[in-house]
Each structure stands twice: as structure tokens, then as C-alpha cells.
Amino acid sequence: MTMKVPMTEYLRIDLETEKWECRVCDHVIAPAAGNYKEGLLVHNRDPREIHPPVIDPAKYRYTFCPDPDWVRILEFCCPKCGTQIETEYATPGHPPLWDMQVDVPALKAQWASRGPAMLPDAGPAVVPGRGHAH
Amino acid sequence: MKDMTTGGPAPSAEDMKLIKKFLEDTTLFLGPDPEIMQNHDLMQRSADEEHAIANVPDTHTIAKIRDRLQAGCDEGYEMVEQMGAAPGAKWGDVITGIYSASGDLAIASAGGVLLFSSVVHHPIKFIVKNWMNEPTVGVRDGDGFIHNDSRYGNVHNTDQSMILPIFHEGRLVCWVASTVHEGENGAIEPGGMPSMAESPSDEGLKMSPFKVVENYQIKRDLLTFLQNSVREPKLQLEDMKVKLFACLRIKQRIEETLKTDGADALISTLRLTMEDVRAEVKRRVSEWPDMSVRTYIIQDSTLRENCVVKVNCTLTKKGDQLTFDFRGSSPEFTNRATNTILGGLKGMLSQLFLCYIWPDLPRGQAAMAPIEVITDPHSILNCSYDAPNSQSLMSIFTGFTAGQHAVAKFLYSCPEKFTKVHAPAFNMINTFIWGGVSQHGETLGNLCADLNGMGAGATSNRDGEHALAPIFATMADIGEQEVNEEDVPFLQLVSKKMTRDAIAPGKYRGGQGYTMMVATKDSEQWGFMTTAQGAKIPPIQGLFGGYACGTYPLSKVQGVDVYDVMLNEPEKFRHSIEEIMNEQPFEGARYTTHHMGMGFDISKRGELYMISQGAGAGYGDLLERDPVGVVKDIEEGLMSAEVAARLYKVVFDPATLAIDFDATEQARADERKARIARSVPYAEFVKGWNQPKPPAHLPYFGCWGDDIETLYMGSPDKTRRGDEPKPNYMVHPKDVRIAELEARLAAAGVPGDEKQ
Fold it and tell me: Which of A22, B97, B341, B418 has the fewest C-beta atoms under 10 angstroms from its C-beta?
């Protein structure tokens, strides 16, 4: 059986195919030796939509909102299931980072000696409770 | 003329010895020693240590002695915390430690600011190198040394250390030290951390390590000089005594160990504790995946003006070697105080590992010892002797966050973890620094302990905790404001109330920050300052699809006496920044907002200064957040119902907050589809997004993209090479404003008949 190593909350590397995969929908994203972001979709988010003004932007210069001319939020999502895999608070125009540059042969060697029993069990499965008890 | 720099035979060993002696005998000034200041690894084993380890190698004996010494450090810590006069001391911004005879920090107290302690090995090594054999100084039983100048090894000059050598039968066996965030130090602004400092000469006391205690007595002449140099002479005396007596208590515990087990057991314990931790760190690192992780954090001000200051980090792990490469970070500012010495950054990274990654390891210098740190020279993270650094926390903390963000991406796949994977904590000291003459006629200068109330980042299995602890001291306290108010002439009219909607969303949300509103009451000579970044750009990043916090400004209401309002028209007072600023309930008052770098501002009775602590970062996709958790956040006042519904796509009854789970599932499925619809493939996106240089509208400092060799210095056309330092002056913000206004006058045709 091929071993798949969970690398982040939503990404794993298939050691046999040497691909980044989505842990939510199994979509094959990109070569593991490369930048996984190249296989994702990107949205340039106005930070005011996520961090709303606490005080009136019509009256004040500083409002608890990040300045959209000074910073943007790059939202990276899986093209198949739409899970938001990564965010990057970026200076406008700054190239997105290749944030995880993995040495794939070393990863394979490391896990060959460990075996699948050592794989971390933390996963993305969320089963919301349906009660409203508090 | 003959070239004196080349040619001719190389000097012999004897000549070199003579040259070295000549240089030593004629050194005019013993400044910070680069050999000491750039090295954070353990010193080589000394002959004494070799001998001791050969005599006492038994791990059980060593574990027993280590526990005794740890208890001694903790006892000293408790003494300083209970007796210290500085507000920082009362709330845990202190630490004690035991250092090897060569100066390495072997054991630090379990509570307190490890960062403080992990830089004190530098001044001890300075003492060992320069004062031990200096006939006019010397190091003897009963001596004590004081130190605060960060350039000789400190976080910032507001911290003061008392350092005692411990002798046994005439032989130096170790050192003990106690460090406190004292606050006042006679700088250009009260409170010890001046953001207005434009050179080291504006930063107050500059104590290189010197002897201030002989025969266990503080020398009164030197004490008086120090008291005369600061705004709080009684604080200076009291805390020097407290630190001295804490050191003496630890000395007593060491002497008990020496009596029962002998000097070799002590020396072996100190050395092997450090060597074992160092080896264990390399083993743990080897379990991480071989990888490079890149991130950057933006400082959005120098505390004097808004600008974009990059802290650039590539963390590379290969085998058992871990390397932080901070090259490409902003150049140092020649006349701004937000630079740090390299030792401060390393100390904070040490804090990262021992508080957030491997908290089970003994606290000391050894955990960071095998980890490499690379920077550019004269960088904001490795500043020169001539650069001010009184606000070094801005760079130390953003450097820490870069490290915390990067490390999480290594830890996720690692089978053996010692903590949960953690999104970045909030990292700014959003608090009020204050000073002036109190209601008791005392001259004071210090700060509110709310700097300790940073929101924690979310982890892989739960929300971040609110106001949990500062990143620099995981066991500190945010203090009793009412106790503080007995000494100072202002009140916190609103304190520890969560700031609604100042959120960091995610599958698990960040711990939130709380509101502080202060107003002077009983003094006509009192003022405040704030020293934080993050009013335009969040100072942290989110993790694995989670979001960072928002931004946090300073709000002021002037032209009102809120104490009169509360006496005569109490119904007008509001208890949130949101209500006061949006409703403007006080007629005739002026309502303004500012970035968080407010220089010392003399306040009038009843005028409001309002800020908020910040939230730690969120973890994971917010559409995976349990809807019950979302509604709980609404009920607890963390988030408004409108924001919750819009962001988290939870459908609920606005009156009862009863959740419609089926509708929520549908709304979230729709949002995932909407994401896909509004997003574009990466290759297409970067074609429109990527720019070759920083945008012209931003004063940008640091590298751009992958080219770490070119550092921008405020505009797309002004650069320096990373390895070639250049001055980097900023214009006084008032001069900038005057120039703007003069240009407007000229444009309006106002006659320019002023003589030039």
C-alpha cells in the first residue's frame, strides 16, 4: 500500500506518485518536489471583508481594518472541493511564496524507516455537533 | 610610497603575540566584543568541566542536583516577583538563572522571561574576558556586577541584570544572575522604551557590565550615580537590592549542594545539562522533514511613521541541522529605535522552542545552541553599535512570529510532537506606557501589565485562548489594575473587555484581545505613550487556511472630561471603543484615530486614550468551524451576529441564535462553490499579480520576492546590497508634514516672500 504523509491540515504527499494531494477530496494537486500552490486556485481578497471595521471608515483613518492598499489576503483553495488550504497576507504585487519546498527523496527515506504506523492521525475531519448546549 | 598592506613575510607567532599584547595594552575602549556577541553556542568544555564530568558522570546524581538548582532558581524568581518594585517584576517579567563558570546559561527559573536570561551569557562572558584579570577591577567572592546596555547582550536597556560570581574554596564554579524589566532608565521618554530615540544617546542608562557590589554590599557612590540618572531613584535602589538578595538566595542553595555533593558534582551537572539538551535538540530536529519553509512578517511602522518593513525568513532543516535565514529583511534604520541586536532575536527564538515547541526541555541556553541564524549585516535584526534599539521588541517579536509560523509547517507531519501544532500568537505590546508626577508627588515612568495580555494562536485541536500570556513569558500575569491605580493618577475606565469583531477567524479561531481605556485623573503632569505596530497591516500570519488578526489603532477623545461626564451625565458614557467612536456621545469633543506609535503625550484630566490587545491567529478553513462554536462567540461578545453569519456561513435565528444546521451545510457548500468560481488558477493569477519591484505608493524596506541580495530602502529606486551596509535615515514626521503643507501653500499661490 502506498504511504501518504499528511504535511498540513489539508495537504499530503503520496510517496509513491510523489504528488501533493488534497486531504479532503483526494484531488491530485501538483508534483511534491514543486510548489503546491501552483495546483491551487487563488483569490485576491480585500482584507476589509475578513477584518470588518469596528469604527466608522467614513469618519476615521484607522478602523481596525487592514489597509487594502498596503496588504491583501491571498486565499488558496482546492480546485475540486473549494477547501481553503492556505492564506498569505501579502504586500500588493509581492510574488506568492513557495512556502514548503520539500526534499522528496529525504522524505521517502525518512518514512521508509518509520513505516505507516507512525503516520500522524490528526486529520481534517470535522463532525459538528448538532446540539446547542451551553 | 610603499604599500604597507601587502608584501613582506607574514609575522611570526612571536610577533603576533607581541602585536596582540600591544593591542590589548593600548585598547582605548572595551566596546561590545563581536566574538562574544555573535556566538550563541556553548563554550568549549573547560579543563575543570572535563575533570568534573570524569568524576561525576552519574545521571541520577545529576538529575537530583539539577532539580535542587532548578528549585533554587524558582525560589529566587519568586523573591523578585514578590518583592520587586517595578510593575514588570510584580507581573512576572523577571527571571533568574545559573550560568557555568565560562558564562553559559545552564538553568533558568521555570517562570519568567527566558528571553531576558538567554542574553545574559554575553555580559558574563565580557566580564570573564575583560575584568577577571584586570587589576583595576577583578572578580572576587562578594562581588556583584550590574548591566543593562543591550549592545553588550540584552533585549533592551529597560532590563537590568545583577550578576554574581560563585566561588568555592577560592575557585570560580559558576555565576548567578537575576534580570528584571525595570521600566524607567532615564531615556528621552519615560518608561525605558523610547520610540523617539534617534540614536543610542537618547536611550538613557548605558551600563556596560561593571562592579557595583563588593562584600555583598551595593556601593553607595555608584548607586547614587545610577539613581541620579533615572526618573525613579527609589525604584533603582529597591530593585537592585531585590535582585542582589535573590542572587544570594540562589547562592545559598548552590552552597548547600556544594556542601553535600562537592564542586565537581555541581560543575558536571551544569555542563551535562547543557550538553544533553543540545544533543536532544539535534535528535528532535532530525525527526522533522527535510524542507525549506518560507514566510514573511510585515512591521507596518517604525513607531514614528507608517511604512512596510519586511522580516524575511527561510527556515531550512537538513538532517539534524536547522537554520534560520533572515537575509532579505529590512536594513537597519539609522535613526529609528525598532532595530535589534542579533542576540535579542536569538533569545526570542530560544523562547519559541522552550515555551511553544519543546516545553519539556530544561530551560537554558543549550536548546538554541545548535541552531544556526543567518542575517545581513546592519539588518533590522542584527543592528550595528551605532543604531538605536530601544524598541527592539518590534523586530524581536516579528522575528519570533516568522519562526513560529515556519516551525508549524515542519511539525505537522512529525510523529513525535511535544505540543500541539500552533498558529502564531499575537505579538505586539499593546499597552499604555506612562509617566509623570503621580497624585503622591512621585516622579514615575513605567507601563501597564496589559502588554502580557496577548491573544494566543489557535492550535490543531482548539481555539486560541484570550489574553493568555505574552509570547515572551508564558507564565506571566496581566496584573491587578486596581493595585496599580493606588500608585498612578489615572484609571482604566474599561479594562479586560473583549473587543468585538477584532477577530482572527478559522476552523479554530485565535484568542481575542481586550479593550483598554485610560484617562488621567489626579495629576496635571502625566502622559501616555503606545509602542506597537499593526494599525495598517496585521503583524502575524494565519495557519493552514486560517486568518491572521485584524489591525489595532489608537483612538483618542480630547476636549472632554469623562470624570465630569460620569458624575453629571453618567448615561452618556459608553463601554466600548466601537460605541464611543461611532456614537460620539460627548458634545464638543474631538475624536481621532492614530497608529500605535504614539510618542509621549501629555494628557489632560478626563481625556480618553483607547486601545485594544490583539488576537492570535486562526487555524484552518473557517467553513469547518463548528457552528455551535460560532454562536458561542456571538453570545460571548467576541463577534457580532452579522459578521458571524457573513464570514462563517452559519444560518441561525437572529432572535434566538438557534442554528439551522441543514441550511448551514447548504450555505457552506454554496460558499465552497463560490470560492472556486471567484478564484483563478495560480499560473494565471501571478501573471496579473506579480510585480518586479515594490509598489511606488509604499515606503517599502527589505527584499522583494526571491532576490534577497537587493534590499529596498523606502522606494523602488533606492536600494542597498544585503551585504553592503548603508545609512538609512528617516525624515522627522513633522518635517514631512510641514513639507506637505508648504507644498499645498505653494500650490494655492500663497506668496513665498519669506527670506531664505
Answer: B418
